[in-house]
Amino acid sequence: MLVTLKQIAEELGISITTVSKALKEYPDVSKKTRKLVRETAAMLNYKPNSFAVNLRTKESKTIGLIIPEIVHHFFSSVIKGIISQAEKKGYLVITLQSNESYELEKKQIDLLISKRVDGILISLANGTADYKHISEVLNQETPLVMFDKIAKAIKCSKVTIDDRKAAYKATQYLIDIGCKRIAHFRGPLLPQNSIDRFLGYKQALTDNNIIYDPTLVYLLNKMSFDEGKFYANQLLKDHNDVDGIFINTDLVAIGAISEFNNQGIKVPEQINVIGFSNWFMASVISPSLTTINQPGFEIGKKAFKLLYKEIKDRKKKKIINYKNIVLETDLIVRESTV
Amino acid sequence: MLVTLKQIAEELGISITTVSKALKEYPDVSKKTRKLVRETAAMLNYKPNSFAVNLRTKESKTIGLIIPEIVHHFFSSVIKGIISQAEKKGYLVITLQSNESYELEKKQIDLLISKRVDGILISLANGTADYKHISEVLNQETPLVMFDKIAKAIKCSKVTIDDRKAAYKATQYLIDIGCKRIAHFRGPLLPQNSIDRFLGYKQALTDNNIIYDPTLVYLLNKMSFDEGKFYANQLLKDHNDVDGIFINTDLVAIGAISEFNNQGIKVPEQINVIGFSNWFMASVISPSLTTINQPGFEIGKKAFKLLYKEIKDRKKKKIINYKNIVLETDLIVRESTV
């Protein structure tokens, strides 16, 4: 059973107030008594009640993290980055999953607010198109930082990569190695990063005087391995002249390569493939996958740092300047491109 | 800013006590006032202070989870199982990482206890050989459930698979398909699951009248992809007659297969490979990996259920019967075995 101040008081035959004051090192308790209380508390393995501490300091030293999916190489890297940084500052992290659902995301936000977390980190669900639940958090002056899947319309601090630039770089690379007909497997319509990756792809084509052909763009929903297989098969049926694909995420690209392997289509000789994110898996499949490196651990660290600064600044009643951190990415060339 | 009872009281020109009583639906406040307070609270977006609630109920509705590593397919599946189940019961999950270090694990336990979580779920670090920190938690009557990497000596509820049986099954399969010289890449000396997997391997050899050769067993430390490559290379140097390997975990097996591929050693024609855990990656590499399916999501769910029951039973002052749940595993045969 957890030891209370009362038990320490009974043990020593003094009042609870004296015990409490002694533990806080109040000078109106004698040095001798303070020492006695400290030693007794240590002997009984007394731990201060953190709820009581919370009431006094109005801090929970806990933050909430909402991500779309936990079993996911990129997001687990982000979680690791956040937790490692939070630990350094003595903060605990409550992790919740939105399953890409707007309704669930709203519920999780409410839960964290009612729990009085000191701040919230969030990567939006694909299903989120309305941001009222986010605005409410910000209106209540609870610090909130978005990362990865963000809402441009919302004013708060954000950590992202330049998705458009990264997609442009990937597509330009396909053009540079000689691809003439380049397809794109894009993500759902809503999240900003899937829009930006599509726009980067399109811009690279235009800048290289390649006519944009909308039939070469496939809209995916689940972004799964199986969807990768399915649309690779569809692409082969629809267009026998495609010589390169830029794919929104590695998992889908790995599915596509698996389908090409099964059908005897040679990667990269017949089709060059570039993915996005640099999941660990990308380096161990055969052929290994050329991809954009998305620094999940760094994104997590930076997101926590921004949140921490905001928590501290608000406490000091400082004016909050929202920051927009954009991390660099690079293209990692492997075997799936010539 | 979060709305307080005081603000509601000021808004209505009544006392804080009346507001508090009204929100708790006390009958000594008139129906009309109760309705007015409820409506005002809703309008001002009032959320009850959860720290105050906690002090009253002595429950935090929060549990702690300590795992060795987050960026890990098996553990992220476990986290997902735990969070999904915790959500159903209204519990939040604080996740901490031990990095396989005993010192860090001890620190994390202390942190969770000082935070007064309602219970703790833990998979032990490879570095943990002393269990005093765990006993202390149990002595303080804080519910704790171990999963995956457990300590046999500690009396508490546990969720595991039968590692010995699973390893026996994998080794027996290698024998059944004709392997005569079977190597084993084992995990570190400490965690029970690496001991049990080794013992299952050894038992299968003995039961099939194959002489156990300790030089065929390699002791790994980091259990990484690179270690898999390194020891695969070492094995080829040490023993040119090996025709099968049972490997403690998929990530290492995938490293080994990658090294065999690089050196032109044909899997499975020259060497059959079986892994352990069934990481998603196992199904997408080439050749795909035969492995033991370790149900991470199920383990997480079951572990939370046991913890929840213990939290409730303790509250009702019931006697706690520790449970030992052992989940079934099966062998998934893919291309890395003939």
What does this structure look like?
The structure is a homodimer of 338-residue chains. The termini of chain A are far apart. A six-stranded parallel beta sheet of chain A has the order 2-1-3-4-5-11, with helices on both faces. A six-stranded mixed beta sheet of chain A has the order 7-6-8-9-10-12, with helices on both faces. Chain A folds into three domains: 5-48, no CATH class; 60-160 and 296-328, Response regulator (Rossmann fold), CATH 3.40.50; 163-294, 3-Layer(aba) Sandwich (Rossmann fold). The first copy, chain A, is an alpha/beta fold. Chain A has twelve helices and twelve strands. At the A-B interface, α4, α5, β2, α6 and α11 of A face α4, α5, β2, α6 and α11 of B.
Assembly type of the shown chains? homodimer
Write down the secondary-structure element order of chain A: HHHHEHEHEHEEHEHEHEHEEHEE
- N→C terminal distance of chain A: 66 Å
Q: Tell me, rounded to a whole number, the average pLDDT of chain A.
A: 92
Which structural class best describes the helix and strand composition of chain A? Answer: alpha/beta
CATH topology of the largest domain in chain A: Rossmann fold
Total number of helices of chain A: 12
Provide the number of structural domains of chain A: 3
Spatial extent as radius of gyration of chain A: 26 Å
Number of strands of chain A: 12
Q: Which CATH architecture of the largest domain in chain A would you pick?
A: 3-Layer(aba) Sandwich
Largest interface: A-B, 49 and 49 residues
Q: State which percent range the strand residues of chain A make up.
A: 15-25%
C-alpha geometry of chain A: elongated
**Regions with little confidence, pLDDT below 50 for 5+ residues of chain A:** none
Order of adjacent strands in the largest pleated sheet of chain A: 2-1-3-4-5-11
Please give the CATH class of the largest domain in chain A: Alpha Beta
